[in-house]
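Standup notes
- DV: blocked on the single-chain target, sequence here:
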Amino acid sequence: MPESKGRKKDAYTPPPTGKGERKVARIGSPSWLAPTMVACFVVGLLYIVVFYLAGADVPVMRDLSAIVNVAIGFGFIAAGFVLATRWR
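- DV (later): unblocked, structure below
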């Protein structure tokens, strides 16, 4: 039985881009992201805890309604979650 001849292909070489040096994409997060994210979580949690424990004694918290104070605390926590989506 006759044998088939194998195909001979040259190795692939990509065409030259002609644009010069390519920029390498940075993988990872900026160095400020993780501390800022944790700080937002902690500040939000502490704000809510301080409001419930001593809200009547703190002048700024006393002037705001309860829902506004809780919204401020959850706003910090939500900002922490938004930053967490950017963390790699």
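- Follow-up: The first helix runs from residue 33 to 54.
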